[in-house]
Amino acid sequence: MIRSYHLSDRPHLPPFAALRAFEAFGRHGKVRRTAVALGVSHAIVSRHLSALEDWLGTMLVDRVHGGLTPAGADYHALIGPAFDQLCSATERVRGDAGARLHVWSMPGLAYHWLTSRLPDFGRRHPGLAVTLRPSDAPPDLNRHEAHADLRWWRDSDFTGSEQVGIARVPVIRPRVFPVARPDAPWLAGRAIDHPADLLTLPLLHEDDDVEWLVWFAAHGLGAAALPPPVARLWQAHMTLVAAREGQGVALTNAFLAGEDLAAGRVVELGAGNAAFHAVSLGAYYLTTPRDSGQTRPLRQFAAWLVDMVGEAPPDWQA
């Protein structure tokens, strides 16, 4: 029989809604961001924070400089792990009942490859829904912001140490190659017979020069000086858009550019030329919390990803 409990059973606990709002605010740092994360108005979040401060008799939020006061930071450090345990325990008890996977992904991969394939996952696993969130930054999986993250990591990003409580598995290691719009005026009449020929063309960069430097080094041009970037666009799918518009040459992979290549909107420079080698710069990794990464929904999603990658043409991968 389920027993009925009253507030006197837990006399030292403040209202849970206020605690939940405060715990989320401590992670997101802004009232409006917290409101979006919780699906409520910012006014409700503000009321919950004020109510908790009244209940505790101390200021938790620094309303002048933003963020938490020292007392708020101390309190958040104590209650945060308790919320993590509640989330883990609840997922374990619920099992697959009403399962919904919250997956974050690099925007480019989400837009150009993953979104169009998700209906296949739904057909294979009816009743298991996937919420896909494109995001530049990875989620905090230890704080249960998502169940899984699919993200590009360059080989140079790894230092040999893994984050505690996190499992990271490579699922796509794409071949990276240069592309450009075939009728770009600066390409007319130019012979691209060797990778060094690209050094005379306008190059599109992401947030730094690392990938171009590694790509040229793989072709024996490690000492080559890169021309000034024609544009720095921060994200791989943005450089692809710029290449499609004729602004310059982008480094990309077929998981992002497959449709553009098939439609002839861009062409691979050096395709079929033995002087151009297959180059790998990194991989898309599926990252999950170790305590929940082996649940059946996540196992099914990981296996489905492997199947989807396996259906891609062989030359898409390095």
Q: Mind sketching the topology for me?
A:
Layout: H1 16-28, H2 31-38, H3 42-56, H4 70-94, E1 100-105, H5 107-124, E2 129-134, E3 148-154, E4 166-172, E5 176-180, E6 204-205, H6 210-218, E7 231-232, H7 236-244, E8 250-253, H8 254-263, E9 267-268, E10 282-289, H9 296-310
Parallel strand pairs: 1-2, 1-3, 6-7
Antiparallel strand pairs: 3-10, 4-10, 5-8, 5-9
The largest beta-sheet arranges its strands as 2-1-3-10-4
Computed over alpha carbons, the radius of gyration is: 24 Å
| CATH topology category name of the largest domain | D-Maltodextrin-Binding Protein, domain 2
Strand content: 15-25%
Shape, please?
elongated
Q: What pattern of helices and strands is seen along the backbone? A: HHHHEHEEEEEHEHEHEEH
Q: Would you count the extended β strands for me?
A: 10
Structural class, judged by helices and strands?
alpha/beta
Class of the largest domain in CATH? Alpha Beta
Output mean pLDDT.
87
Q: How many distinct helices? A: 9
CATH superfamily of the largest domain: Periplasmic binding protein-like II
Poorly predicted regions are: 1-7
What is the CATH architecture term of the largest domain? 3-Layer(aba) Sandwich
**Largest sheet descriptor:** 5 strands, mixed
